[in-house]
Specification:
Order of helices and strands: EHHEEEHEHEE
Shape: globular
Strand content: 25-35%
Radius of gyration: 15 Å
Length: about 150
């Protein structure tokens, strides 16, 4: 297993996983834009030349925001999502980020369980966030420095 930066050569595989995993998939043009965005970092997990998972994060000042994480269905159950999240967190830390944020579908129990395991706590709810079915999103936060919990402002 190799975790590395996503390149344009990965986009065909990324788009296949995107369509398998999400009801509102991003476009190829969106990923092309992200690859040239100075604030974003996109990583893939490459297993024997095949893209098994990918994820992205924006780091702006002290804040890292996870944009997406996906594991191809046939590679699930191998802790790839956890490895990817830790690699994205390390990227935010490398850029001197102190806070990591994300949104997740309220019904995505597997992802919520992983995020809790990794030290995220729920800090809010975005009502009717997803336009495909009006599902709520849970806002989750992790402090990357200190030992306290995030403050609600």
């Amino acid at each position: 297993m190799l975790i590395r930066r996503m390149t344009e050569n990965d986009l065909d595989d990324v788009m296949d996983i995107e369509k398998e995993c999400f009801t509102l998939p991003w476009s190829r043009a969106s990923y092309e834009g992200e690859l040239s965005n100075k604030f974003s970092t996109y990583l893939v997990i490459d297993i024997d030349g095949e893209i098994a998972a990918y994820g992205g994060v924006w780091t702006v000042f002290e804040e890292g925001r996870i944009t997406n994480v996906a594991v191809a269905p046939r590679f699930r159950g191998q802790h790839l999502g956890e490895a990817l999240m830790l690699a994205l967190e390390e990227e935010v830390r490398r850029r001197k980020g102190t806070l990591l944020l994300l949104e997740v579908r309220a019904s995505n129990a597997a992802a919520i369980s992983l995020y809790n395991k990794l030290g995220f706590i729920q800090t809010g709810v975005r009502a009717k966030y997803y336009i495909d079915n009006n599902e709520d999103a849970l806002s989750m936060t992790k402090l990357l420095v200190g030992s306290g919990k995030p403050h609600l402002f």
